[in-house]
Write a structure and sequence with these properties.
By secondary structure, the chain is of the alpha+beta class. It contains six helices and nine strands, in the order E-E-H-E-H-E-H-H-E-H-E-E-E-E-H. The strands form two sheets. It has a seven-stranded mixed beta sheet.
Length: 187
């Protein structure tokens, strides 16, 4: 069963953010668009490149009113230590959620049980707590934050413009489509 259009499950977690430990839950995500980006582990190889890329794009997400969160099965203490020692992770200005019990990773169906690590899963959640975009792939393949930003913009556009859909490679300001019988076979 796909998680698309399902409501996120309840959770409680601690994150490292802006020099502090903060408590989060599913309620923390309500009322705003959110991105949860799961990654396998701190102090690894591809993960810091992704988190740094997302940190560089984070101001664009913020302009859209979108909160960004990184999530791994490490603890919030490990996130702080990584932040304090890695030049790439020092750039991260969004919360890094610790998921040492794997609750969040299991809720989002990205847990690799035999390894105790998460797959690279990206989830865009609307203000009502429903998953609108998800992407999960092999841990050897890094993600591109600019493509994620495009998907967030498309998800927001569709939510704000009922009856409209965004075609492939849609970018903000480009034409959208209004599904109808008249379009069948003409695209």
């Amino acid at each position: 069963m796909s998680l698309i259009n399902t409501q996120i499950k309840p959770f409680k977690a601690t994150a490292y953010h802006a020099g502090k430990f903060i408590d989060l839950s599913e309620e923390s995500l309500k009322g705003k668009w959110s991105v949860l980006m799961f990654y396998p582990a701190d102090f690894t190889f591809v993960c810091p490149t992704e988190l740094e890329d997302l940190a560089e794009q984070q101001p664009e997400f913020a302009k859209l009113g979108v909160d960004v969160y990184g999530v791994s099965t490490d603890t919030h203490f490990a996130h702080k230590a990584w932040h304090d020692t890695s030049d790439a992770i020092k750039k991260v200005n969004y919360p890094l959620i610790g998921d040492p019990t794997g609750t969040l990773s299991r809720n989002f169906q990205v847990m690799i049980e035999e390894e105790g690590l998460a797959l690279r899963g990206t989830f865009v959640i609307n203000p009502d707590g429903f998953i609108k975009v998800l992407e999960v792939h092999d841990n050897g393949i890094g993600r591109d934050a600019s493509e994620l930003l495009r998907k967030v913009k498309a998800a927001k556009y569709v939510a704000e413009h009922p009856g409209q859909v965004c075609p492939a490679k849609w970018t903000e300001g480009a034409a959208t489509l209004t599904p109808s019988l008249d379009l069948v076979g003409k695209i």
